[in-house]
Write a structure and sequence with these properties.
The protein is an alpha/beta fold. Helices cover 38% and strands 18% of the residues. The strands form 4 sheets. A 7-stranded parallel sheet has the order 3-2-1-4-5-7-12, sandwiched between helices. Strands 6-15-10-13 form a 4-stranded mixed sheet. Strands 8-11 form a two-stranded parallel ribbon. Strand 1, helix 1 and strand 2 form a beta-alpha-beta unit. Helix 6 runs parallel beside helix 8. The two termini are 36 Å apart. The relative contact order is 0.14. The structure holds uridine-5'-diphosphate.
């Protein structure tokens, strides 16, 4: 089959690109290389390369042209990372809203199935342990730009859902919970690549706040086949699925595990949120998914535990010590 991957040069997109090509599919990547990188796409010698279009997902004509050439679309292009959202709020909103509108309309017009990569961030401050797809969103006040990512992604989900209902769009939504693995940059905020880079550089690990906040991390190689299975499963259409790990960890304990695995001696430093974010920034204290729906539908079951996830990032950063920021 032929697939369009918007954001195909990004962290998850490039893993998905390699996975689809290794399964014998053809891939068209649309990426503006704002956070993605051409290096992400070149790392499998011997395998076919994707066709790469350097352009914006907000360019509706370009998106339409790309969509006309494929049998399915993975929409992963987005402004990502807490640092990006905080520092480039307007541009992030534009990408995350107008880009999705263009992709959804093109998929509708060409009648091709679409997967929207959404985010666990839409649940916001909902404290429930084991968030399920119908749970409420609990968000702070709109002037806090921190919520704009959740707002935009929630509207994206609504745009997709409305096109399913009103125009018969064939679409599925995956809400991703803290996806991690080789190739992810810490430059935009993501905690594991940041901690690993800091540890390998002998710097203290910057735990934001008191470190009691809890996350579940999931290896990108567990996530990618789930995205493919969801897009290809006719019975998943019109539905939302959580896709995430099952191993909750406090960020302070995560830092300790990174120190133990790397053997680093730089220690841990607690950093107030307002060093990096606006005053009054509110982090999500708990974010734990219930993935029973994806398990029942496509047999989703993550295989990598947290130590394996951390070790894969350590190995990757050791191999690319000079080429990635954080
Ligand atoms: N975090 C941290 N130190 C860092 C980067 C992130 O303590 O250098 C924390 C962040 O405040 C959050 C958690 O790690 O509580 C996960 O952050 P990330 O940006 O990876 O994902 P989020 O869950 O916030 O979307």
């Amino acid at each position: 089959m032929r697939f369009l991957i918007t954001g195909g040069a990004g962290f998850i997109g490039s893993h998905l690109t390699r996975h689809l090509i290794s399964e014998g599919h053809k891939v068209l990547v649309l990426d503006n290389f704002s956070t993605g990188s051409a290096c992400n796409l070149n790392s499998d010698p011997g395998n076919a390369l994707p066709t790469v279009v350097d352009g914006s997902v907000c360019d509706a004509e370009l998106v339409d042209d790309c969509t006309s050439q494929v049998d399915g679309v993975f929409h992963l292009a987005a402004a990502v990372g807490t640092f990006t959202i905080a520092r480039k709020t307007i541009e992030s909103l534009r990408t995350n809203l107008h880009g999705t509108e263009a992709v959804v309309e093109a998929a509708c017009r060409h009648r091709v199935p679409l997967l929207l990569a959404s985010t666990s961030e839409v649940y916001g401050l909902n404290p429930k342990a084991g968030l399920t797809e119908d749970d409420d969103r609990v968000l702070g006040s709109p002037p806090h730009s921190r919520w704009s990512y959740a707002e935009a992604k929630s509207v994206d989900e609504t745009i997709v859902h409305a096109h399913v209902v009103e125009h018969g769009l064939d679409a599925v939504i995956a809400r991703l919970f803290n996806t991690v693995g080789p190739g992810q940059s810490g430059e935009y905020g993501m905690v594991i690549p940041r901690f690993v880079r800091q540890a390998l550089a002998g710097e203290p690990l910057t735990v934001f706040g008191d470190g009691t906040q809890v996350r579940c991390f999931c290896h990108v190689l567990d996530v990618v086949p789930a995205l493919v299975a969801l897009l290809l499963d006719r019975d998943a259409r019109g539905e939302v699925f959580n896709v995430g790990g099952s191993d909750p960890v406090r960020i302070e304990d995560l830092a300790r595990r990174v120190l133990a695995i790397t053997g680093a001696s730089g220690g841990i430093v607690h950093v107030p949120y307002d060093t990096f974010f606006e005053a009054g920034y509110r982090d999500t204290p708990h974010r734990l998914p219930d993935c029973a729906k994806a398990r029942a539908r496509i047999g989703f079951r993550p295989t990598c535990d947290l130590d394996e996830i951390i070790s894969s990032v350590v190995a990757d950063q050791r191999a690319h010590a000079l080429t990635r920021g954080g």
